Fold these 2 entries.
Entry 1:
Amino acid sequence: LVCAHQAPTQASRKVMSRNTRCYLAAAAVMVASVEMGNQCAFVENPSRLPQFPPNVGTLKLHEDEASIIWDMVIPVGTRLPPHEHMFDYSFHVLEGSRLAVYSGEDANHLFSFDAPMGKTMAFKRHGNMMVDITGAIPPFPAVHGVMNIGKGNYREILVETKPCKGVPQNETAALRYDKERLRRALLTQTEPTVVAAYDEARSIEGVRASAIIGYSKSVNHESERALAQGFSHGMLYTLDEVSRELTTTSSADTMVFDFYPVAVKDPGVAEEGMQRVKHMVFVQFKIDAPVGKLVAGYIGLTTKISEMKGFEWGPIANKLGDEEKGKGFQYGFVTTFNSVEDCTAYNEHDAHKEYVNEVVPYAEDLLVFDILEHNSSE
């Protein structure tokens, strides 16, 4: 499976040599996983949900109940955005180089190390840190970015090992975030497409009407209409891992953002006759952005702007096959307002304007889409 992704661009003898290294890499990583005792992996992980994108490679090759296999390719001089390791992992180097590791919180350099071809390494998560099982590399944050600072391209095969299904979810076992219910924001350029998505969601067994959180055409504030990027209709709804696999997102005019919502402020239940607004913001940060600080700044607005009645956020974690539907966006934020007027007041609030001035220079791309909260009795 892993080696099938090796592009045969070299002479046949070299291709055979490269593929042989690939098969050996897969074997080496599996051996490292066994040495870690990961037949049933235990992880001391206080994070119930990922705070940064859990996509720890550049291409997800496979995922099942026990593991996730990633291909990781980093060209010379390329820096990858910060990600979060939720599970123990091992990797084997196919093409070696020197790597620099950066903090996900403030983008500062943490350390650099050599990763030569043929090297295998394994790490366990303890608290918010990753620990090298050999002790060769000091513990480092589970949230970090990586840059190839060497003279050649870098490539590795990385295997994450999930806690087994039967492992008790106690203080020492990782909470399987992939078993939690997630939010899906779906944006379309035509009304029929969002209507079809709505009908599909309602037809899936186990998806109740109350799971449809927001559903309408765009109600963006006039100052943010261009930030809708041509999308006209949207839906925000809740799915579990089973119902997510039953949904289809094949329409060319559709964008999909799946994330596990970190609840900051509970909006509660709307009063009768109230038409609440779901203000959705999706961001792709620049490589050198102090992501942790920027996210904390957004969360901090909930204590400064009274109109923000609810707030949740999470890193985008689209399923295998839907990655391109996210168009490179990394984070989703959803704010609940009691009315369109409250949303307008938020946009005009000085604290909001100050935050916008702080975050925009670090935003590679920004999409804003407001929809009306859905009445589950409809």
Entry 2:
Amino acid sequence: LAFLSGRFKYCTLQGFAFLPVYTWVGLWTSLFMILLGFGGASKLIRYCTHFTDEIFNGLLSLNFIYEAWASIHRNFALADPINLTMPFVSLGIAFATFKATMGTVAFRSSKYFNEIFRTIIKDFGPVAVIILMSFVNQIPWIKKFGVPTLSVPSTLQLAGGRNLIVPFLSVPLSLRLKCMLPALLLTTLIFMDQNISVRVVNNPKNHLKKGEAYNIDMVVLGVITGFLSIAGLPWMCGATVQSMNHVRAMTKMVYNKVTNELEVDSVNETRVTGLVIHAMILGTLSLLQYLRILPIPVVSGVFFFLGRKLMTGNTFLARIRDSVAESSRMPKDHPMNVIGRFKMNLFTFTQFACLMALWTFKQWSATAIFFPSAIGMLMVVRSFLLPNFFEEREFVALGDPTPRRNRLV
């Protein structure tokens, strides 16, 4: 979104038609991605360790929470200072949605009912909460407060009633060639986003049996990007959050009596669920008129939930909390007790500084277009800068061992 916003502003200032530029950036990106896939460039993702994964997930979490809070704050900023009833009602709906969604997901690890029932509540609970809160907003004594709802078109059509195929040949050759530069940046973003998402899914903790296909995925994604660009449709990219949730939904968990925790037993690996999910998403086009009753605070509550959920299992964020903890109360294998508080906090501060740098690049319009390159610099920091300050045993204690040379298909 930050990249597209930057491109749109540039085209507006220069007087260029946005869609033809969009198409040529996408076509160059498609070519670069196909070349990267055939060249086996995805093997470079081995330099992307937990250091990068945790910062990237932290950025996603921060972005979800920021967007949710910005939406809630906007209600207060635009409301009549004398009557803040609507903003507070919106805040209550968002908070109720957040807590209820967290509760349904956490129900899976509770002791109530049997495993099948708990799994059903966990899988379908969030959707039920969204529907329930939408109906609550329709209650007359709540509806009178005018809580904002989604604004959706009444009919399905392309922007401005344009044709499906973008007239991309209408721009001069010089502009087509200039589109190579932003295409390089976009390629970097998609390359990182796609491979990080695939790395998260292929985490050894998930016990997946299917083989890896990083480079094949990159070629296929490049071809799809080309077709989408010609049609002026949104580009595809790795959906990290959705991918993680999909894996979790297909995971069979077992209770470990020794650790008193749920552990992954196996994952039902199938393409059917992915096909059905996206078919159902396509089917929502017939429900546009009903989406108008969905309160925006409910969406904000879901965003709060997603941001909080992404924090789970992120050891970088956990180390921020543990940075001021008493070492004697931490486990013996905790990084603080293995390498010392100073080294642990130094590593954590480096990750925090990288996260803030990424956020600044993303939020500042003057640098938003270079945001993809900033993500790529994370691997440079971990692979070439940090080894000057940390020994390998310290990386291992921090849960971020330097990967050995491996082969990606």
